[in-house]
Every structure is written in structure tokens, then in C-alpha cells.
Amino acid sequence: MSTIHVSVNGTNHEIASGSSLADLIAYLQREAGQPDDPAAIATAVNETFIPRLKRSDTLLSDGDQVFTFSPITGG
Q1: Of 21, 43, 46, 63, which sits 20 to 30 A from 52 (CA to CA)?
Q2: Domain ranges of the chain
Q3: pTM of the model
Q4: How many Cα neighbours within 13 Å face the side chain of 35?
């Protein structure tokens, strides 16, 4: 199995080649002992916001920089 390296909030991670952003978020939540809740965080890849519904379509590449943050809600 080939792997790629991505940075998540400044921390390097090695993941399977062909992984989507949704795959990475699920993995990170499992590793942190958190429930699988995609709505719990917002995401950006290489400084571009990625909506929750597009995470499965967003394939990660070697060297990508992923940022996770608390979503802002309200009106």
C-alpha cells in the first residue's frame, strides 16, 4: 500500500494514497476517541475551505496542508 504525507494543523500524518478528506477526518476523530461527527469541525485544504458535503470528493495529495477548526454558527 502506498502512502502520502499530509500536515494537519501543523502535525505530519502518513495516510493511505487515495484517501479523501472525509477519510482523514474520520481517522482523526477515531484516534482522538471522539464520535464520528463530520459536523463537529470545519475544514480547509491548502487554505481553501472545503464544505462538509465535498469532503468525500476531495482527494488528498502528498504535501497537502489540512486545517481543522470549530465551525462558526449563528445568524
Answers
A1: 63
A2: 3-69
A3: 0.89
A4: 3
65 near 36, Cβ under 8 Å? Answer: no
pLDDT in tens, 54-75: 999 999 999 999 999 887 665 5
C-alpha cell at 1: 500500500
Q: Is 61 helix (H, G, I), strand (E, B) or coil?
A: coil
- CB distance 25 to 43 below 8 Å: yes
Long-range contacts of 13-18 (CB under 8 A, 24+ apart): 15/60, 18/59
Each residue's pLDDT tens digit, 20-62:
999 999 999 888 888 888 888 899 999 999 999 999 999 999 9
Domain 3-69 has CATH 3.10.20.30: yes
